[in-house]
Amino acid sequence: MYDYFMTNFTAQKVAQEIVLVCQRLHARNMLAAADGNVSYRISDDEILITPSGVMKGFMSPEQMAVINLNGDVLIGKPSSERLMHLEVFKRCPEAKAIVHAHPPTAIAWSIARPELKKLPSDCLSEVILATGDIPFVPYARPGTEDMGKVLVPYLPKHQAMILRNHGAITWGADLDEAYRGMERIEHSAQILASAEKLGGLHSLPKEEIAYLYELRQKIGNILL
Q1: Strands (E), 108-164
Q2: Beta strand ranges found along 139-209 (DSSP E)
Q3: Which of 47, 71, 138, 206 is the least crowded, having the fewest Cβ atoms under 10 Å away?
Q4: What is each CA distance from 9 to 182, 190, 223, in whole angstroms?
Q5: Nearest C-alpha neighbor of 112 from the set 165, 43, 168, 37
Q6: pTM here?
Q7: How far apart are CA 202 and CA 192, in angstroms?
C-alpha cells in the first residue's frame, strides 16, 4: 500500500485531500468515531475510499483503500458502505467525489418527521438555490446492497440527500463541492429546526418559490 501511494502522485494528492475533508467534517460534528466515508474516482476504474473501522478525523493518507468500479478490493480494507458509493459513480458520470457523513440535525429531521419527503426547502431560499431540493431517501440497512438501490430513484438529479435514520450523502465534481453539499445539508437542517422550535415553519410565497426554482435551473447541476 505504501508503495502505491509513493509512486502514484495523483492518489497521494487525493488521499491528502480526503484526510482534510474528514478532519473538517469531524470538526463540524458530522463524523464521530469510525462513522462515515469519503471516496474519489481517480481514474475510469479506480476509486480511492476511506478505510473501514478507522476514526476518520484522525486518519492518515496511507490508510486509504482502493477499489474498482465493480467493487473489487485492490488495496486495503475499504468501507463496508462502498456499494452506496459505487451506485452513485455508475449513475452520475459527473461525480468524482462522494461524501457520506452523519450530520446530527439532518438525521434528527428524518427520524422526527417520517411524513416529509424532503427537507422543507419552501421555507429557505438557500436550500433551493444551492441544492434544488434535499430529499429524504428511504432507510436501508448499513453495509448492504440496498444502500445503493434506494438511491437509484434520486440519481443523477439530486446531489445532496438525507438517508433516513442514518446519515447523508453528497456528490460533486470535486471534493470541495461534495463537502460543501454536506455542510449545506446540516446548516439548513439547523436553521429549519430552530425555526420550528421558535414558532413553526412558514413557506415563502408561491411566486417566490417558483422564481427560485427557475433560478436554480439556470445555475445548473452544482452544489453551492
Answers
A1: 136-137, 160-163
A2: 160-163, 167-172
A3: 206
A4: 27, 39, 28
A5: 165
A6: 0.95
A7: 10
